């Protein structure tokens, strides 16, 4: 599954970012295995570094991630919903 961001044509940039949610999930699963029983968390501050925390967090949550780091209380409240 991929998520495409809309190009910012107002800035004159035709760039398009494609986020592969499956790859993010696979990366998390791999890191969790490498953690050897330690808790594995995700840093999703600043809207998951611009990737869209509302899209990233559910993928990681479905894979068992229960600890998410945010930069502000407001980010945490928004993601908790």
Description:
The chain is of the alpha+beta class and 81 residues long. It has one domain: TIM Barrel (Alpha-Beta Barrel), CATH 3.20.20.10. The protein is built from four helices and four strands. It has helices at 21-34, 45-49, 53-62, 73-80; strands spanning 2-4, 18-20, 42-43, 68-69. The strands form two sheets. Strands 1-2 form a two-stranded antiparallel ribbon. The chain has a two-stranded parallel sheet with strand order 3-4. α1 (21-34) packs across α3 (53-62). It is globular. The two termini are 23 Å apart. 12% of the residues are buried.
Residue stretches low in confidence (pLDDT < 50, at least 5 long) are none
**Shape by Cα distribution:** globular
SSE order, as H and E?
EEHEHHEH
Main β-sheet description: 2 strands, antiparallel
Helix and strand content put the structural class at alpha+beta
Radius of gyration: 14 Å
The CATH superfamily is Alanine racemase
Helical fraction = 40-55%
Whole-number mean pLDDT = 87
Compose a concise summary of this entry.
With 81 residues, the protein is an alpha+beta fold.
Break the fold down into its secondary structure elements and pairings.
Layout lengths: L1 E3 L13 E3 H14 L7 E2 L1 H5 L3 H10 L5 E2 L3 H8 L1
Parallel strand pairs: 3-4
Antiparallel strand pairs: 1-2
């Amino acid at each position: 599954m991929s998520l495409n961001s809309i190009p910012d044509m107002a800035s004159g940039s035709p760039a398009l970012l494609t986020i592969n949610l499956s790859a993010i999930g696979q990366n998390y699963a791999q890191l969790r295995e490498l953690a050897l029983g330690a808790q594995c968390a995700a840093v999703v501050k600043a809207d998951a570094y611009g990737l869209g925390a509302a899209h990233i967090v559910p993928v990681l949550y479905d894979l068992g991630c229960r600890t998410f780091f945010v930069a502000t209380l407001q980010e945490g409240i928004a993601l908790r919903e």
